Structures are given as C-alpha cells and as structure tokens.
Amino acid sequence: MIKKEMIAMLLAGGQGSRLGVLTSKLAKPAVAFGGKYKIIDFPLSNCINSGIDTVGVLTQYQPLRLNQHIGIGIPWDLDRNIGGVTILPPYERSENTDWYTGTANAIYQNMEFMEYYHPDYVIILGGDHIYKMDYELMLEFHKKNDAKITLATYEVPWEDASRFGLVITDENNQVLEFEEKPAEPRSNKASMGIYIFNWDVLKDALERLKNQSGCDFGMHVIPYCHERGDKIMAYNYQGYWKDVGTLSAYWEANMELIDIIPEFNLYEEFWRIYTKSEVLPPQYFSENAKVSGCIVGEGTEIYGEIYNSVIGSGVTVEEGAFITNSIIMNGTVVKAGARIEKSIIAEDSEIGENAELGAFEEAPNKFKPNIYSGGLVTVGEGSVIPANVKIGKNVAIVGKTTAEDYPNGILASGESIIRQ
C-alpha cells in the first residue's frame, strides 16, 4: 500500500478573466512572470522545497500550454515513480460527468487520486499567487494545535480588506467567524486560499456537500465544517504574498522585482524557484544599447534603450526604440523608433516602427473599465501594431491590426481593438 503523509492538490483551472487579453489563449497559472517564470512555478517550487513530492494539478480552461510547461515535472524534481506531479483534467465517468464547477467540486471529482495515496493530510493550493512559503511549517502548526483544518491568512491593508474572504480569530488563532468580502470588515486577516485538511475531514465534507451547486471551499466547505464544530485554525503567514489576479497587481508585482532592494527576492539559494527553461543563447547588448534597472531574459537582443522593465527571452528591441516601466514577454519584436511606456505586451507580438504606446491623458476604458485600468496598455499574444500609430492609456489590443484600424493614426485612451 502506498502511504504519503501529505499530498498537494493545486487548483490551476481558472480562466483569470480579470487579466483580460493576457488569458484569452491560456490559463492564468501559465501566464509569464518575472521574465523567466510562469505563475504556477511558485506553488510547485514551494511544494518541492517543503518536502511535498506528490502534487495533483487540476486543469480545465485552455490547459495545453500549462500541460506542456509542467510535463512530467522534471524542473521541480517531481518526476517520481511514486507520487510526483499528475495533471488532473475533468474526465468522463459512467454517471455525473461534469466540468469542474467550483474549487471543492474539482477536488471532489479527484477523490480516487487522493485515495490512492492514503494521506494523513491534504493541502489545497491555488495556482495564481506569487509567494514563497514553507508548507511544512504550516503542517507543524496544524498538528501542534490538533486542528481539523488550518487555513493560511495574510494581514492585508484595512482599505483593501473588503475585497477578500476574512476570518475573525481568538487570541490563540482559532477561527471564530468568517466574512466573505464584507462592506465593513471587522478583521483584516484575509484567507490566502491555502488549506490543510485532515484527510478524513476533507473526504467526509466533500461527500456530504457533493450535490451543492458550484461547491467552493471558502463559500461552502469551510463554513460547513465550522458549523459542525471542527476545529479550524488560522496560520498567519508573514512573508511576501501577491494575488496577481488583476492587470494592475500583475504589473506591480513584476515592477517590484526590479526595485534596488526587491521586496520579493528571486535569487535566494535556499529557496529556489524552478521552471522549465529552454536552451537559448545569452543576451546581447549592442554598443549603443542603454539598459537600467531591468530583468532581461536569455536570447534577447537589445539595440535601443530600456529602463525599469521586465523583458522576457528571445525579445528583439531595435535601435532607437525606447521602453520604460513595461513588461515585454518572450519572442516579441519592438521595431526601430517605437516608444513604449507602462505597457504589458504578451508573447510573439510585433510593435511597428515609431509606434507610441501610452500616449495622451488617461480615460476610462469603454469596453471593460474594471479590467483595463491603472494607465496600462495591454497587448495580447501574437498581436501586431503597425508603424507610426499613437496609442493611449487604459487600452487593450489583441490581433494583427493594420493602419486602417487607427483613424488618423490614433487609438485614443480608453479604446480597444479586440480581434480573436
């Protein structure tokens, strides 16, 4: 019989609709981060660094490139004969076949996978946060307090608290109450969406709630267990944690990597972040190139000027191009004379000669004002922007656009061009 003390279930099936055109062709956990990584690299690296060698990755939305990235788990030392990493998409059964309809429903549909390892504990993780966390310390806290469930919490600024699921605890950190995105918060302890369950408790709760529509941990499972008297503890996490679920948060988290003393350090020897790396030549900086305060990926050629930006691998920045405060992802070409300010440009895009991104005064986006905000220009994967156009702020562009798409050579602030 195979027996594991703790296994991880990593929820990576979300669309990430708040990232707009960045996730039109791929799942949010597969979005690039820091010029080299994918968002899912962080929880996967946390698992192996914490001694967890059995991870189920639950995929659903646009899974192809996420599956290709994870493969058999070699970069994270998760290519094991027993355990390792297993991709778990929804699958057809003899009855009750369904897509994953909620976080807990997704875990319930993989009961057989968990049963196989006879775990004492199961840790539930999200695939869309940037952080380093030793799950072993959280497990020690769980055992020491004789908890049935432990959830990780993070103290958020009071002004942001209403955006989160919050917990109210006693002086020993035992959970007394829950508040789901309250208008007037009584606590700033936000749930991080990381849960350790005793296996028997999780199994019983999922069985009892299996008919609950859209069954979710925060909305259904945790409150159900609380009501029936299961001891639930809050593990207060003190390190860096960033939910990169919005374009502004995603841009900010990338920009924090290039601070003089970065708040989140990618270079620590004792807690490495692992990823699948392609074999690429080194970066090339021409004699006239000017680069300051940047991360620059392998295989990138720079002939222009770049400041305070995160540049992926295989990018070409031609002479006379000027980039500042931006994220440029793998394989993008920035033509001569282009000017890019505060933009996120996804993979394999082309920015035409003398095009200007981030011009004009800000105006709210007319298409999706809650998504395309913060003064950003967001360009989707494989897009083409023609030469000599001026593009404003809070703009989304996806597709191979031509000069005819820009009346008088302009796309005003708040406008969008969406070509799928």
Automatic annotation (TrEMBL):
Q: Which domain of life is it from?
A: Bacteria
Single annotated GO MF = glucose-1-phosphate adenylyltransferase activity
Nucleotidyl transferase domain: which residues? 8-257
Q: What does the record give as EC number?
A: 2.7.7.27
What biological processes does GO assign it?
glycogen biosynthetic process
The record's PROSITE patterns line, in alphabetical order, gives:
ADP_GLC_PYROPHOSPH_1, ADP_GLC_PYROPHOSPH_2, ADP_GLC_PYROPHOSPH_3
Residues that bind alpha-D-glucose 1-phosphate:
Y100, G165, E180, K181, S191
In this chain's numbering, which residues are marked as the site (Could play a key role in the communication between the regulatory and the substrate sites)?
Q60, W99
Q: Its family?
A: Belongs to the bacterial/plant glucose-1-phosphate adenylyltransferase family.
Q: What function does the entry list? A: Involved in the biosynthesis of ADP-glucose, a building block required for the elongation reactions to produce glycogen. Catalyzes the reaction between ATP and alpha-D-glucose 1-phosphate (G1P) to produce pyrophosphate and ADP-Glc.
Protein name per its UniProtKB record: Glucose-1-phosphate adenylyltransferase
